Amino acid sequence: EPEVTQTPSHQVTQMGQEVILRCVPISNHLYFYWYRQILGQKVEFLVSFYNNEISEKSEIFDDQFSVERPDGSNFTLKIRSTKLEDSAMYFCASTRQGVRETQYFGPGTRLLVL
Amino acid sequence: DQQVKQNSPSLSVQEGRISILNCDYTNSMFDYFLWYKKYPAEGPTFLISISSIKDKNEDGRFTVFLNKSAKHLSLHIVPSQPGDSAVYFCAAMGPGNTGKLIFGQGTTLQVKP
Question: pLDDT grade, residue A11 (50/70/90)?
């Protein structure tokens, strides 16, 4: 069964460093999302992306964040200058043809900012 | 942002019995609801969804009920199995065309053998 994959599974970085989190959505999916979950808190929406454009972004998704689909398979989340409070589990998700479909989530990347 | 609430942090049931997980929402514009299950160190796994035009949706052991007037939905698992032990998240989507899901805090279900 096709699945969303994410790399790396864990990332440790120093505050102020840039990180890039990578996702490979399911191959025929067209809509892409990033969410994060700070330890002990809710899963929070960050951004949705369709047709090479951001559809919606949350207040969390400030100028330090960016997303890109550099080729036909990868979907990346970049944090330019990480802060301690960026430490969280980051999940990528995708849907096939529309937004009112099941979002399939990847296993997540655990980011720790020291 | 407390638009979706799961007021029970945990639930424990005996194997074979019914598990009922509850979720309340405040935004009447939400029109699509989903339940996800999550194991530690894994991403959320889709279980079942319901559109606001329905009040019930069933898939095997899982049934979701939606009460729009009360802004309440529930997930019933019958019969419960030990493998169902996980964190269950309720999520809601509004009418916008962006796919943004708003999640509840989650309920940890433990099914005892």
Answer: very high
| Residue B83 three-state SS | helix
Name the residue among B60, B70, B73 with its Cα closest to residue B104: B73
Using an 8 Å CB-CB cutoff, list residues of chain B that contact chain A: 32, 34, 36, 41-46, 49, 51, 89, 91, 93, 96-106
Contacts of A102 in chain B (CB under 8 A): 34, 46, 49
Residue A57 tokens read as 């972004």
In percent, how much of chain A has pLDDT > 70? 100
Average pLDDT over residues A90-108: 90
Interatomic CA distance for residues B8 and A93, integer angstroms = 26
pLDDT in tens, B52-91: 999 999 999 999 999 999 999 999 999 999 999 999 999 9
The full DSSP string for B12-77 is EEETTS-EEEEEEE--TT--EEEEEEE-TTS--EEEEEEETT-SEEEETTEEEEEETTTTEEEEEE
What type of residue is B79? P
- Residue A63 Rama label (left phi>0; alpha psi -120 to 50; beta): alpha
CB contact under 8 A, A45 and B100: yes
**Cβ(A69)–Cβ(A9) below 8 Å:** no
- Which of B54, B45, B111 has its CA nearest to residue B78? B111
Integer Cα distance of A67 and A83 in angstroms: 18
Give the residue on A whose Cα is nearest the Cα of B95: A100
